[in-house]
Structure formats: structure tokens, C-alpha cells
Amino acid sequence: xxxxxxxxxxxxxxxxxxxxxxxxxxxxxxxxxxxxxxxxxxxxxxxxxxxxxxxxxxxxxxxxxxxxxxxxxxxxxxxxxxxxxxxxxxxxxxxxxxxxxxxxxxxxxxxxxxxxxxxxxxxxxxxxxxxxxxxxxxxxxxxxxxxxxxxxxxxxxxxxxxxxxxxxxxxxxxxxxxxxxxxxxxxxxxxxxxxxxxxxxxxxxxxxxxxxxxxxxxxxxxxxxxxxxxxxxxxxxxxxxxxxxxxxxxxxxxxxxxxxxxxxxxxxxxxxxxxxxxxxxxxxxxxxxxxxxxxxxxxxxxxxxxxxxxxxxxxxxxxxxxxxxxxxxxxxxxxxxxxxxxxxxxxxxxxxxxxxxxxxxxx
Length: 363
Description:
- By secondary structure, the protein is an alpha+beta fold.
- The protein contains ten helices and 14 strands.
């Protein structure tokens, strides 16, 4: 929540609440699209308690049975939530984002981005934040309101603080603040393993490369400036990649247990997938649920330590359902007076911390 101007911190509903909201909307079929978003939201609110323990319909359709294990149930619910958000009417999605508004003034709107919702459109994507910004602007202000504008982006699976601008001029000003590294961004992530050292800076350039395998695909990867010469072990300068971008990430361990760690991260630069790549390939500590960057040469579910599986009460065969545990926890925006926004961890993140016995630091 904005600390500037003495405003008290407030945080809105968690990812699990959103899952229940979306689940209720998707079951109503085509007729739902014709209803106004306000009417839908009221119906959803009334039916929420009845659906609190319900299993997503996609689970029942795909398996024909209800999972008995609570861990499998909530993991499957998160997986289904992302798919179901692609089926709701845009007005409903805008209403969900309105309910997750953390702060607004004449220049900006700050939201708590939910898990599984893409910022931009693309192949196979029906709903994204960018597409519903005109509707959200009207809901927050009036029918003549100018569409909101994106100022930065978060990955589809990343949750937390996201800033939108009310005008093109405000958007350009805020994008410049991001580009010139005047915006302080703090993330929290649960990672596999324990970083060594427990606090430091990763400064390794990043570049996108094609992975040659039976499933060819593209990934961001490290492009280090130096390498170890195998014949004598000397550190020598590596041939630079002209496409590589400078990338700097500060990190600090907050807690460690169950073969995992809770890290606080501050990306100084803003390269695509920077935090994920620096943690996985730079420190050897991939983010829990990051199936893309847990391997280099293949696309496969993340391999979890036995202790972690036991604490999560999860079988390795079900690890593919683990969500990415990366949260945009705090953002300080120097817009006139500094505005400090803090966003509460989503419910699934909190549950994982408890299961792994990772103590949340007191702010």
C-alpha cells in the first residue's frame, strides 16, 4: 500500500479467492457474457462460500475423480485457475482487477496482479491485462475515462505490485523512471537449495538462445564475460555476445528450511526473466515451480529434493502442478513524493511457506 502521504497499508484478496471467483464465472456458460459485470460480481460473491471447498471442473473432466489429498487439490486448483481466466467475459476480468486495486490517484492505479494472468496477448491467449485496461478505467472512473496504460510488465505466473498510468504522459514519465533505474523493486521467492554466499550480487549478462533438443525452444541464459580455461584452470575473458544485455540482481536470504530458502531480491536492471535466470543458472537455486529454468536442454517438470516433497506432502509425479513462487512484494515509485507500495503474499505462497517451515520475516 502507498506509504507516501501517511496512507495506511492495505492488501486485497489472495490468489485462492480469485480462483473461487473465476471458477464460479466459468460454470455459467455463454449466457454469463450478456450480464453486466456488477451483476456477475454480486452472484459470485453470494456463491463463493458454497464453492469454497469445491474442486475445479477441469479436474473432474480430465480425471473423472476428485483428488483426496488436499495438497493435490489446491495445486490443481491453481492450474485450472489460469485456464479458466481465459474463458471469462472481459468485463468480469476487469471487475476482478478493480477489486484488487491497492492505490489510485490522478496519475496512477496500482493493482495486485493475480497468478496466471498474462500482461500481454499472444498465441492461445484470449484474456490479458492489456486488453481490459479500457474497461477497468471506466469502472474506476467513468464511461468517458481514457484507457489505462501499462508502465512495466510481470510474467504471467508472477504475482504482486503492478503500476498502471491514467494517461500517456504519466505512462511515459513512469517508464522513464523504470528505464533509468529510479524505481526500487523488491521481490520474494522460494528457491530450491541455499545460495552461497547467503547475500550478494549476481552481475552476469543475459541473452536469449535457442535450445537444440527433441523439442527445440528458446530460453534466456547467461552470457558471462569470463570463463575458466580447462587446460590450466585460469580465468580468462570470454568472447562477448553482442546481443547480451547487462543484468544485475541483488539478493539476500531471509530464511532456510526443508532444502529450500526464502530470498529477497532486488533487480537493478530489467532484463526478461532476469531473476529466474540469475537464480537458476547463476546461483544454482531455481525458483520453486519454475519448470522452464530448472533444466537447460529439456522441457520437464522440476525435480524436487526428497525432504521438500515430504514437507509439501507431494509426489514427484505431481510436481508439474507447482506454481512459480515469485512475488513482486514491494515497489517504491519516486513520483513527486516517494510512493511505497507493499503487496501481501498470495495464499498459495503463504501455504507453501508454512508447509516448508520457512518463517516469514516481520516487516
